[in-house]
What we know:
2 copies of one chain form a homodimer.
Chain A: E1 5-11, E2 14-23, H1 28-38, E3 43-48, E4 57-65, H2 69-82, E5 87-90, E6 94-101, H3 110-120, E7 125-131, E8 134-140, H4 144-154, E9 161-164
Helix pairs in contact in A: 1-2, 3-4
The complex binds threonine (2 copies).
One threonine sits between chains A (22, 24-30, 48, 58) and B (115, 119, 124-125).
Amino acid sequence: KEPEVRGVALDTNQAQISVINIPDIPGSAASLCRKLTESGICLDTIVQSERQHESGGRTISFTLSRDDRKLVDDALSTLLKEWKGSYLIDGIAIARISSVGAGMPCTVGTAGRMFRALANASINIEMIATSEIRTSCIVSENDGTKALQAVHKFFELNNNSVRSGGS
Amino acid sequence: KEPEVRGVALDTNQAQISVINIPDIPGSAASLCRKLTESGICLDTIVQSERQHESGGRTISFTLSRDDRKLVDDALSTLLKEWKGSYLIDGIAIARISSVGAGMPCTVGTAGRMFRALANASINIEMIATSEIRTSCIVSENDGTKALQAVHKFFELNNNSVRSGGS
Ligand SMILES: C[C@@H](O)[C@H](N)C(=O)O
Ligand SMILES: C[C@@H](O)[C@H](N)C(=O)O
């Protein structure tokens, strides 16, 4: 029978940043990504949650490889000047853990169970990007290995985990 | 040669909600999902972006099928009472458009190009959950069909799109 989670991957080579106060109009997300891509920066997880204040600006958070972090300020400097009030902030040092589901009926709640596996190991979740069969959680860098083991154990995976990016 | 995007799906049967001021400690995300899953609610896209204020509370936004929206208030009432200052807000009427990539080198910037396809059609992006090869964008419900056509056209997909959830 199909396992609920087919595999889990840990990437310890990522950094997280957010751009705050992005104009909430068509083209902003596209321009942000274009500037980064043009500088050869690869974005891994990109998250934008629902509008929360009437202030109108939006925040986009993303993760990228640590080596690329130094390229970001130049890549975005023109855009940040153009978008009055916008700025970049760095998140804490992180690790990214992602699971790939086996397409179970979603009332099984696989994403929530992955959050439970992390909570049981007292790991705080910093960022979440989940869609259908794939759940990505960002945790503090120090919790990376513990997170991989916790999810592995919770879903009874034997050799289905992958580590990448460790230095 | 591999296409950059293998397929795109539109779901017009989703609603978006956010829970605001969630205690930022291990277990919050897991408890939120457990309460919803126990009421038979299926979560599709779940997004939590980086901490932005020192206020300490976090926001989790998610999408679910419209029929399940009426079950949410009861499902979460105990938790929302327990989490002082937390509350639920409904987002605007939405559609979800997701593309599945073909695993191109990420410097191609497929997610950003999908945002560009939407921007070219003057479609505002309300929520983003992107991880590696899959990009999910939430747009206003009225933009759903236009979004599917725009992404389809931009990536030159012929019969690789799927519509679901239309009433
Ligand atoms: C904030 C950003 O996502 C904007 N709404 C856009 O469509 O690009
Ligand atoms: C806010 C929520 O994600 C919390 N940090 C948790 O780990 O559950």
